[in-house]
Specification:
With about 400 residues, this protein is α/β, with parallel strands linked by helices. Helices cover about 25% and strands about 25% of the residues. It contains twelve helices and 20 strands. Helix 7 packs parallel to helix 8. The protein is elongated and about 75 Å long. Mean pLDDT is about 90; it is low at about 390-410. It binds pyridoxal-5'-phosphate (PLP). Pyridoxal-5'-phosphate binds near residues 91, 172, 212, 228 and 230.
Length: about 400
Amino acid sequence: MHGTIVEGVQPHRTWAEIDLDAFGHNLAVARARAGAGVRLLLVLKADAYGLGAAGLWRYAIRAGVGAIGVGTGAEAMALRAEGAEGDLVVLGSLIADELDGCLRSDVQVGVQDSHQLGQLQAAAARLGVSARVHINVDTGMGRLGTSLTRAPELLRQALGAPHIEVAGLMTHMADPAGWSPTTRAQLLRFQGIVDEARRMGGFRGWTHAYNSATLFTAPDLVGDTVRVGIAAFGAMPAGLSTDPPLRPVLSWHTQVGLVKTLEPGATVGYGSEWRAPARTRLATLPLGYADGLRGTLGGRGEVLVRGQRAPIVGRVSMDYTTIDVTGVPGVSVGDQVTLIGEQGSERITLEGFARRASTIGYEITCGLGQRVHREYVGGELEVPTQVAPSTAVPAPRQEAVEPTSFDKVNP
Ligand SMILES: *Cc1c(COP(=O)(O)O)cnc(C)c1O
């Protein structure tokens, strides 16, 4: 549990605790923000950003998530093998080898151009199925998606293809901080394509553009579906916060493996980069960069032990990391050490941890190694389906807005 220090022998060298109650709370906050009738597509790509899709998807479905997004064909297959039914979308692009498996398992896929559409049409015809596709429109992200000028033609092609069902129109936002002139411009372009699709007739798919940052910062809702990843895990990019606040889902722990006393001048770790300035109590932790503890934290990071902060000294190595516990009385072998999370009144947030490592929260959670045991706690309680909408942050409107209404907003 957050804030508690587990006494006694720890069964794992390092473990990530994943709080399902916090996850449920965050999903409810996201749903309240999106508004009634808006579909929440939970993004569980990269094994749920490293937290473990297998441990989360069932709970998410119970919590009212309407669809799940993944990154690859293999991730989609794994969820289907676990028994995940319903709308499952590979958000990006498939490689040729992934096509048949996804089509056989009724996995929906993003489509970026007419070549991909042709491949999908051919494979679906061969398998005697219908390929459900989301036409991805590049409104400014540049990475995937069809250009704005080609989007109507691609959509027309898709609507006319016998083995294609247009399940959605999507775009992706480039600004990690959410609402900005760039985001606004992207949304206006997207709304333009959605309007054109409606005029064209025959399009009845979902429309989706928002990620976590956009959902919590844009003044109005564009689309009928929002794609939420990081917010569900209780973090926000770019230092954004939400009201009501999200709850951190991840905490990350290890234990003291060894305590040593170093004489002044003794050096620690590869390259002997740290030298004991005085007599030093050193604790060695049984995890390293192979577990996802970034090398950039060598000589810069901090951990919590016995409710106090202790600095990481020397380089982080593959299996071990060293901390200076001279200032923390009584540290002994087996003590729980917290890398991300709370101990007593001290707390290290994912965002703060990532900042110290010169990276972002997404990279930290995705980098949690295979040796980090995932422990799921909570989730026995009834899943919260509603959070009182806050007054400070009005929920966006449920109807897709006309482009002109965005013009009234000062970004
Ligand atoms: C990862 C991803 C998201 C989710 O982004 P968050 O910032 O984690 O909410 C949404 N859409 C697409 C296309 C993505 O790849």
